[in-house]
Design a protein that fits this description.
Number of helices: 10
Number of strands: 8
Helix content: 40-55%
Shape: rod-shaped
């Protein structure tokens, strides 16, 4: 190393002159480890260098573990790419909608959930050429383990960020499907019970005011044109029909679903529903089906 690394030779010559004559490993001068992080100390041609990134990558995972233990949102975000942060946030928002969680920010929800699971992370199978590794999650209380693919992206100006988008995208799709199915089940229950409050909680305000009978169950003309038809009246008529709604197809990426219904022997639909944010919550928008009832 003295012969092939000029910076190292200079330090030894100035700080440890006797070190150049070392004949045993014990006589080799010690240098602070930080020097190898801040200086390029190599004894092979640059073209033959393979960067060893284990310490930096493991440092990121250590930061993630610390952030979970201390509930430090800024530290947790500093570990991940912006794309990963966005997916984490979207997942937290959907999970909070599914669980009815309130008074938490997405990052608070993420960190609290991770701490409740009592998980600690580590790395395996690091590939310094492809910039990939396996993220190992261990539940401290049970020892149960799970492994996930992880990538690392080099930042401008130096340093690394963890890219967890591959796993998060799959989890987000699963959460979206769960949310869609839950909302359709809530809607089906509201129509079965004729409950205006439950119906209004499941669908957008535009659906409530524009087309509560989006499956076209009721007659096109009211029985008594002189009497105003209320939402409760319409839902009572839909309840009387004995309608059942089921999902035919899902598009989790677009947050859409195609549903069909059955009222006695009468088949209804299919119609397309969208799932949108309305008044701070995700609700069903059926306004695209608000056209007049089709001719028999």
């Amino acid at each position: 190393h003295l012969q092939r690394c000029a910076p190292y030779a200079n330090m030894v010559e100035r700080l440890f002159p006797a070190g150049a004559q070392a004949t045993t490993r014990a006589e080799v001068p010690y240098l602070p480890v930080r020097l190898f992080k801040t200086l390029e100390l190599r004894s092979v041609p640059e073209a033959e260098v393979i960067k060893t990134l284990s310490a930096e990558w493991k440092g990121l995972i250590d930061d993630a573990n610390t952030a979970i233990d201390t509930q430090d949102g800024d530290l947790f975000w500093s570990v991940f790419t912006k794309e990963s942060q966005d997916l984490f946030t979207h997942m937290a928002e959907i999970d909070m909608a599914l669980s009815g969680t309130e008074n938490e920010t997405p990052i608070q929800h993420i960190l609290k959930q991770q701490k409740d699971f009592n998980v600690v992370y580590s790395l395996e199978d690091e590939d310094h050429v492809a910039h990939t590794a396996t993220l190992v999650a261990v539940i401290r209380t049970t020892g149960e383990q799970a492994r996930f693919p992880l990538k690392f992206v080099e930042k401008e100006g130096g340093g690394w960020l963890a890219d967890y988008t591959e796993v998060l995208a799959v989890r987000l799709g699963n959460l979206k499907e769960s949310l869609i199915r839950r909302l359709v089940a809530d809607l089906d229950k509201a129509l079965h019970t004729g409950d205006p409050a439950a119906f209004s909680a499941a669908v957008t305000a535009a659906t409530v005011s524009g087309c509560p009978d989006f499956m076209h169950v009721l007659p096109a003309a009211p029985a008594n044109p002189k009497k105003p038809v209320t939402l409760a009246d319409q839902l009572a008529g839909i309840k009387k029909s004995g309608i059942d709604i089921s999902i035919d197809a899902l598009d989790t990426a677009a947050m859409k679903a195609t549903v069909s219904g059955k009222a006695g022997d009468k088949a209804l639909g299919p119609i397309d529903l969208s799932f949108v944010e309305d008044a701070g919550k995700v609700r069903i928008d059926a306004t695209s089906a608000c056209s007049p009832a089709p001719a028999p």
